[in-house]
Design goal:
about 475 residues; alpha/beta; Aminopeptidase; about 30% strand
């Protein structure tokens, strides 16, 4: 009788333990966060120095698996004494580093407590594509997408991953990526902050025990993340891709979980999303160690809504403007495009109009209804400034109220591409004068700079500067940077 009662209660005991763990992980995260990785554009050298310090830790084994095309070491960190091998690999795409940072947070946690992996031996490849990380680009040094090289194995990085999986015969695998911040949860304005997938291993999308176990683990990871980003978990497209590692890992016998880190409001460096990775991955390791995933159902996985790609940084609804004597009313979708510096270590934003028309099926991280406002193109301040120092002293709020969104500077330093001020700069040396017989351009054009005014009763209520809103109504400046044209 007693044994029977314990068997019935086991799922609830496992859930309670998991609940306590992820709550504690979330609350104590700052104690384990690796502070040297605060920005996304960290490099191989930053990771190498951290790996060197791990070599001094008695429970960590750091192995050099091989070298990238450009000769950078690709390392693996192993920890644990259990019989079940788990393999996690990150930054297969060089510009997808969120989980890489989370992995080093996980190392800091495991330095103090390894009880949740007592039945596992866990192997981490933190940066599979260090050459891509150097240029913050998706592909490797010869332009190959490593995640489409699981069969041809033309790149050393691909061969390293395949050989590692085969030598370990990993029972579970975590394929860690970043996805576009413009993915949303289907039929929802919420971003797909995390998307999951148990990849298909054939075109029929069959579900065997291996793929089914991946689905069950995801089902429980979803429940955990819902506690911190409710409604912001999506399910990635499961069309079979015969060249991809996730699909082939599943085929080769490793229950594979794809984790995609998307976007979150006001989290440009994805530090909150990194925290979610930390909590979810450590919780998943405990779920595997205790076999708690066996308590989940496939229906719980299939109930996760699919993700979609209908999100903008800023959506402006019901915008009225005139062109060639005709009046129009449209919605605008505006994106903040990241423009990097030369060494790929930092960036600024370039706000562009990415869509025009009926966007009623689309959403924005931020939205503005312009139904009772009048569109007006911003003007350039008539006084030409001599240098950038003079620009810094301007009263920008007053200029915006007067209808100006840009200022001309005579001697603008060539290296300055943006400013931290809510105003664009016109570099006089680069201004082109249009031909007299040229057809006037629409004031709202696809791909054009997202800078204009919204007025009411001939007073400026909002200024959109480089795709960001400056609200004179609420006295709120959300402009992250202006640009130099």
């Amino acid at each position: 009788m007693f044994k029977h009662l314990i068997f019935l209660l086991l799922p609830f005991i496992c859930f309670s333990q998991s609940k306590d763990l992820h709550h504690d992980l979330f609350q104590s995260y700052d104690s384990f966060k690796e502070s040297s990785l605060e920005i996304r554009r960290f490099k191989h050298s930053d990771v190498t120095s951290l790996l060197d310090s791990l070599k001094k830790e008695k429970d960590f084994e750091v192995t050099i698996l091989g070298r990238s095309i450009q000769g950078r070491n690709i390392s693996m960190v192993s920890i644990g004494k259990g019989d079940i091998n788990v393999l996690l690999w990150s930054q297969m795409h060089g510009d997808e580093p969120t989980a890489t940072a989370a992995i080093f947070d996980i190392f800091n946690y495991l330095k103090t407590d390894q009880s949740l992996i007592e039945n596992l031996k866990v192997h981490f490849i933190p940066m599979l594509n260090p050459d891509g990380a150097a240029s913050f680009s998706r592909r490797n040094a010869i332009g190959i997408d490593i995640n489409r090289d699981a069969v041809a194995l033309q790149s050393p990085e691909s061969r390293i991953l395949k050989n590692t999986r085969d030598s370990l015969q990993a029972k579970f695998g975590f394929n860690l990526h970043d996805q576009s911040k413009y993915y949303n949860v289907r039929k929802s304005e919420k971003p797909a902050t995390i998307s999951f997938l148990a990849p298909a291993f054939n075109y029929e999308k069959d579900i065997n025990e291996i793929r089914g176990n991946a689905m069950r683990i995801i089902a429980q990871m979803n429940q955990i993340i819902q506690g911190y980003a409710r409604g912001q978990v999506g399910r990635y497209n499961d069309e079979f891709e015969p060249r991809a590692f996730g699909d082939n890992m599943q085929k080769w016998g490793t229950s594979t979980i794809l984790v995609e880190s998307g976007g979150y409001l006001d989290d440009p460096e994805k530090q909150f999303i990194r925290k979610l990775n930390y909590v979810a991955l450590l919780s998943a390791l405990q779920i595997i160690s205790t076999e708690g995933y066996k308590n989940a159902t496939l229906d719980q996985y299939l109930s996760i809504p699919k993700n979609d790609h209908k999100l903008y940084d800023l959506k402006i609804e019901n915008l009225k403007f005139s062109y060639l004597g005709m009046d129009f009313e449209v919605d605008l979708g505006i994106q903040h495009i990241e423009k990097e510096n030369k060494d790929h270590s930092a960036f600024y934003y370039l706000g562009k109009i990415s869509d025009i028309g009926d966007l009623s099926t689309h959403y924005g991280y931020k939205a503005l209804d312009a139904h009772d406002l009048t569109f007006k193109s911003g003007e350039t301040y008539p006084k030409i400034l001599e240098d950038f120092e003079a620009f810094k002293t301007l009263d920008f709020e007053s200029l915006i109220r007067e209808g100006y969104t840009s200022v001309s500077i005579n001697n603008m330093p060539e290296e300055v591409k943006f400013t931290s001020y809510p105003m664009n700069i016109m570099n006089l040396e680069k201004i082109r004068i249009p031909k007299n017989n040229a057809m006037p351009k629409s004031p709202v054009a696809l791909g054009s700079d997202a800078t204009f005014l919204l007025k009411k009763d001939d007073k400026v209520v909002y200024a959109v500067i480089n795709g960001f809103v400056y609200s004179l109504k609420d006295n709120e400046n959300e402009v992250r940077n202006g640009i130099v044209k």
